[in-house]
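Hi U.,

Before I forget, here's the chain from the pilot set. I'm dumping it here mostly so it's searchable later in email.
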Amino acid sequence: MVLLLFVDLDPELKALDALGGFFVLRTGVPPRGTLPTLASAWTSPRSGTAGEVYGDPVTFRVRKVAQSIRAPEPRVAVSVAQQGLAARFWSIALGAAALGGRVPDLDPELLGWDPDAGAPDDLWLREVRFRPVADLDAVVRAGLLVPLSAALRSRHRVSPALLWGNAGSALAGTVRQLERWARAHGRPDVGERARTLAGGLFAHPDLSGTLDPETLRRRSCCLYYRVPGGGVCGDCCFERPPRPAPDRT
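Structure:
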């Protein structure tokens, strides 16, 4: 007897697999069992046991990332963890919109998250339902990135400009990946839709100042250069890693 633990319920979501790991969205119950929803993770009491996966999933994830990249201070790990989730959110939603003309409802109450997984973040949708493309901003920026930022900033000292810079960078990266896929598969319509939709998303004040419109370089730094051996990212506002300020004591 075989027990079927999960099923990919919708062909539109399954089609995202071809775009790369950041676009994958599974449905149903994961093989590891029920995961906390993003909503419950963000509102979990900070007095919970941070060393346990479900005591405070947000803090657990930041600590896991910090250990993985050997972050020299917590805000570096916060930045890397947040950018990874932002990339996942944009990839799933924009990928579905560009390919299928609909956006999966990524309600935080429906979206399971495994804070102990590797990268890209493991997300599972409990119930498949779709929203119109016009709701793309409401689904991702307002519905996911705003509460994620609030949860992180309630636990760590990190600049909101840094977090929105990460979100803008992740959105631009998603568009580039969709354009590459579109060229490779003879689907210029997908690339064009991705660019058009992203243009509307970047019009919101939270995102409008995050990238230089001419060079598409960020106007803030994600701090990855502070990771041992990290260097600067391709769209970084710095040409080379900044040097530490001289000691004037």
